[in-house]
Design goal:
The complex is a heterotrimer. Chain A is built from 8 helices and 9 strands. In chain A, helix 3 (108-118) runs antiparallel to helix 4 and helix 4 (131-143) runs parallel beside helix 5. Chain A has helices at residues 44-51, 92-102, 108-118, 131-143, 161-177, 189-192, 213-220, 223-231; strands spanning 4-15, 18-29, 33-37, 59-64, 77-80, 149-153, 181-185, 198-203, 206-212. Chain A has a single domain, classed as P-loop containing nucleotide triphosphate hydrolases (Rossmann fold, 3-Layer(aba) Sandwich), CATH 3.40.50.300. In chain A, a hairpin with a 2-residue loop joins strand 8 and strand 9 (206-212). By secondary structure, chain B is mainly alpha-helical. Chain B folds into 2 domains: 2-85, Orthogonal Bundle (Arc Repressor Mutant, subunit A), CATH 1.10.10; 87-125. Chain B has helices at 2-9, 19-33, 45-52, 56-69, 86-110, 115-125; strands at residues 72-75, 79-82. Chain B has a two-stranded antiparallel ribbon. In chain B, helix 2 crosses helix 4 (56-69). Chain C is mainly alpha-helical. Chain C has 12 helices and 2 strands; from the N terminus they run αααααααααααββα. The model of chain C is unreliable at 205-218 (pLDDT under 50). The chains are: A alpha/beta, B mainly alpha, C mainly alpha. Chain A binds chain B through residues 32-33, 168-169, 172-173, 175-176, 190, 193-197, 214, 217-218, 221-225, and chain B through 13, 15-20, 45-46, 49-50, 52-58.
Chain lengths: 232, 130, 254
C-alpha cells in the first residue's frame, strides 16, 4: 500500500440523537484525487469537519497526514467549508492579504495568477458578488496554497456553469503542477467525474464502497451509474 | 499548430469505461489512420487533460502506454512526439487491425457464424472482390 | 506566521464599521447621526441660554456603556456564525486561545475608541453649554472635566470584564452548553449595571463619604472600589477568556 493521507477507524459522531458517522472506517491514498460521494446526510461534511478539527468524534480515531487533527495539522490542509461564505467586508485584494498573512504555504503570485483566470478583479468587494464569483474567490484561496492536502466540501454547489468549468480547469492545472492529496465532495458527478482517480461512496455514516475509479469503471460502469445503483 | 493537433485529439469520453484506455486507444487509432502525422508533437499532459477535462494522471498513464508501444518518444525539454519511424506505426496499425478482426470474429462466433460463413459474407459485400 | 496575530486583530477592529455591511457605510446611519446631533445641540442651546440645562446631565451615558461593551464582544464572535465564515476562522492554523484573544483585543480596542469618542463629545457639550450659560465660569469647567473623566474611568474599569463576558456568552450560545445561557443573560443584566448599583449603593452614605468623593448630587464612589475594580475586572477577564477558548476547543456544536 502506498502512503496513506487519511486514516479513520470506527468513527462515531452523534448530533442530537442522529448518528452522522456510524462506524466510519476509511483509508485514503496520498497524492490522489478522491471523490467523496453520497446522498445528503451521508456524513460527508462531518467527515471533512473531523479532518480539520472543527469537530471531534464521540469515539474512534482519525489520523490526517499521520497526526491527530488540530490546529497544527491545519497548517498543511487547505479547506473549503460547506456552504461557506467569504467575509463580506473584504475586497479580493484583502482576501489575498488574509491568505498571505494567516495561511502557511499561501503563494501570493500564484493566487494573483489564478484570479485573472477566475475572472476576478483585486478591487472587487466580496459583498455583492454572485455565488459563482464568491465560490471562485474561495477556491482561489484554497488552491493558491502549497500544502499536501486539499479538502473541498461541495465546491460546485449552487454555482453557474461557467464558474464550475473554470473551477474544474483550475483544479486540473493544480493537479498538473503539484503532488497533492485532494478530497472533493460533490453532487455534480457527471460534470466532474473525469477528475477523480479514487472514489468513496458514503451511506448513513459509513463507507458503502471505495476504490480506484478506473477499476470501478471497468467492473461496474461510470461513477454516476454506480451512484444510482447504490443509492437509487 | 498545437491547437490543430488538439482538435484532432478531441473526442467524447465514455465515462463507463476506463478513461486511460480510451485516451490510449484514441491516440493509437488516430496515428494508424494517419490523422496524426509522423513526428508530430503531442499536446502536453496538462493540455490534453484540460481538453478532455480529466485528471492529468489519467493522461499520463495513457502516455506511458503509448511510449511503451513505441508509438511516442519523449524528447527532453521539448515534450512528447509521435515516432517518426513508419515501421513502428505500421506495427501498431497491424496490431490494431488484428485486434479488430479478432473482436469481429468473436462477435460473429457468438452469433453462430463460422469463419467460412464470414468469408462468404465479406466477399458478397465486396461485390466482385479484390 | 509573522504578523498573523496583528492581522487577526485588524480583521475585527473598527474597520468592520466602514467596510462591508458596516454601519458607517449606511446612509441611514449618517441621517440619524446628523438628526440626533441637530436635536441635541439645538435643545442644549435653548436650555442653556435660558439657564435650565445641567451641563453634566449626559454623564448617565457612562453607566450604559458597559452594556455596549458586552454586546461588542458578543457580536464579534456571533458575526462569524451569522456570516457563514466561522469555519474559515476556526480552521486557521492557530491555537484557539490565540484566535479568541485576538477577538477579545479587537473588541476591547473598539470599546476604548468608543469610550474616548463619547467622553470627548460629553465634554464638548458640557463646555458648550457652560459658555452659553452665564452661571458658569472656567473653574466650573475644570471641575466638570474631572468629574466626567472619573465617571468614565469607573465605567471603563469594568469594560475588560464586560467585553469578555459578551464573548463568552456568545461562545456558550453556540456550544453544547447552550442550556446555561439564561444564566449568562441574567449575569449580563446585573453586571452591566454594576457601575450604577455600586454608586447608588453608596449614595449619601456618610460612613463611606469619608473615603470617597462626595458630590452635591449625592453620588459617591469609594476610593477602594475604584482601586479594586480594575484588577478584579482583569483577573475575571483572563479567566473568562481561558474558559471561552476551552469551550470553543471542546464544546462547539459543529
Amino acid at each position: 500500500m502506498k502512503d496513506v493521507a487519511v486514516q479513520c477507524d470506527s468513527l462515531i459522531k452523534t448530533y442530537g440523537g442522529k448518528r452522522a458517522l456510524n462506524g466510519f472506517t476509511l483509508s485514503l491514498p496520498a497524492n490522489r484525487v478522491t471523490a467523496v460521494l453520497g446522498p445528503n446526510g451521508a456524513g460527508k461534511s462531518t467527515f471533512f469537519r473531523m479532518l480539520t478539527g472543527l469537530t471531534a468524534p464521540d469515539s474512534g480515531s482519525v489520523r490526517v497526514l499521520g497526526h491527530a487533527p488540530g490546529w497544527r495539522t491545519n497548517r498543511q490542509i487547505a479547506y473549503l467549508p460547506d456552504r461557506a461564505r467569504w467575509y463580506g467586508n473584504q475586497t479580493v485584494a484583502e482576501a489575498l492579504d488574509w491568505g498571505a498573512k494567516l495561511l502557511p504555504g499561501f503563494d501570493r503570485p500564484r493566487a494573483e495568477q489564478l484570479l485573472r483566470y477566475m475572472d476576478l478583479e483585486l478591487q472587487m468587494p466580496a459583498e455583492g458578488m454572485s455565488r459563482g464569483q464568491e465560490a471562485r474567490l474561495m477556491l482561489t484561496l484554497c488552491i493558491a496554497r502549497d500544502v499536501p492536502l486539499l479538502v473541498l466540501d461541495e465546491p460546485f454547489a449552487g454555482i453557474d456553469l461557467i464558474s464550475r468549468e473554470r473551477i474544474v480547469s483550475a483544479l486540473i492545472d493544480n493537479m498538473s503542477d503539484r503532488e497533492q492529496t485532494v478530497l472533493i465532495s460533490t453532487h455534480e458527478i457527471v460534470e466532474t467525474e473525469g477528475l477523480f482517480d479514487y472514489a468513496v461512496f458514503l451511506e448513513n455514516g459509513r463507507v458503502a464502497l471505495a476504490g480506484e475509479t478506473e477499476e470501478l469503471r471497468r467492473e461496474r460502469g461510470s461513477l454516476e451509474m454506480l451512484y444510482r445503483k447504490l443509492f437509487g | 499548430m498545437k491547437e490543430e493537433l488538439g482538435g484532432k485529439l478531441q473526442f467524447e469520453l465514455d465515462l463507463s469505461q476506463p478513461l486511460y484506455e480510451q485516451v490510449w486507444n484514441h491516440v493509437r487509432s488516430s496515428v494508424a489512420k494517419g490523422v496524426i502525422g509522423l513526428g508530430e508533437k503531442m499536446p502536453s499532459v496538462r493540455e490534453l487533460a484540460q481538453m478532455l477535462q480529466i485528471n492529468p494522471n489519467t493522461v499520463m498513464r495513457a502516455y506511458q502506454e503509448l511510449e511503451r508501444d513505441g508509438l511516442t518518444e519523449t524528447r527532453r525539454g521539448q515534450g512528447t512526439f509521435i515516432t517518426s519511424d513508419p515501421i513502428k506505426v505500421a506495427t501498431v496499425r497491424e496490431s490494431l487491425a488484428q485486434a479488430a478482426v479478432e473482436e469481429f470474429l468473436a462477435r460473429m462466433d457468438g452469433l453462430g457464424f463460422t469463419v467460412r460463413d464470414v468469408m462468404q459474407m465479406i466477399r458478397s459485400k465486396g461485390g466482385n472482390g479484390e | 506566521m509573522q504578523g498573523s496575530f496583528g492581522h487577526l486583530i485588524k480583521q475585527d477592529s473598527l474597520r468592520t464599521w466602514w467596510t462591508g455591511k458596516g454601519a458607517l457605510r449606511s446612509p441611514w446611519f449618517w441621517f440619524y447621526t446628523v438628526f440626533i446631533l441637530l436635536v441635541v445641540v439645538g435643545s442644549v442651546t435653548v436650555l442653556s441660554l435660558s439657564g435650565y440645562y445641567e451641563p453634566l446631565a449626559p454623564l448617565f451615558i457612562a453607566f450604559g456603556l458597559p452594556y455596549m461593551a458586552f454586546m461588542i464582544g458578543y457580536n464579534l464572535f456571533f458575526r462569524e456564525w451569522k456570516n457563514g465564515t466561522v469555519s474559515w476562522w476556526l480552521t486557521l492554523p492557530y491555537p484557539r486561545y490565540r484566535l479568541m484573544t485576538a477577538k477579545y483585543l479587537a473588541a476591547l480596542l473598539q470599546n476604548l475608541l468608543i469610550y474616548m469618542a463619547i467622553l470627548l463629545a460629553t465634554l464638548l457639550l458640557a463646555g458648550y453649554s457652560m459658555l452659553l450659560d452665564d452661571r458658569y465660569r472656567l473653574s466650573d469647567f475644570g471641575a466638570a472635566l474631572l468629574k466626567t473623566v472619573s465617571w468614565y474611568g469607573i465605567s471603563l474599569s469594568i469594560v475588560p470584564f464586560m467585553t469578555v463576558f459578551g464573548l463568552l456568552t456568545a461562545v456558550v450560545m453556540s456550544s453544547r452548553l447552550k442550556p446555561l445561557s439564561p444564566l449568562f443573560w441574567i449575569g449580563f443584566s446585573i453586571t452591566g449595571n454594576m457601575a450604577t448599583w455600586m454608586t447608588a449603593f453608596y449614595t449619601d452614605n456618610t460612613f463611606w463619604n469619608q473615603f470617597g468623593v462626595t458630590e452635591p448630587g449625592g453620588i459617591v464612589v469609594p476610593v477602594w472600589f475604584q482601586a479594586a475594580i480594575v484588577p478584579v475586572s482583569l483577573v475575571l477577564a483572563a479567566l473568562f477568556l481561558w474558559l471561552s477558548a476551552r469551550i470553543v476547543d471542546r464544546q462547539l456544536t459543529m
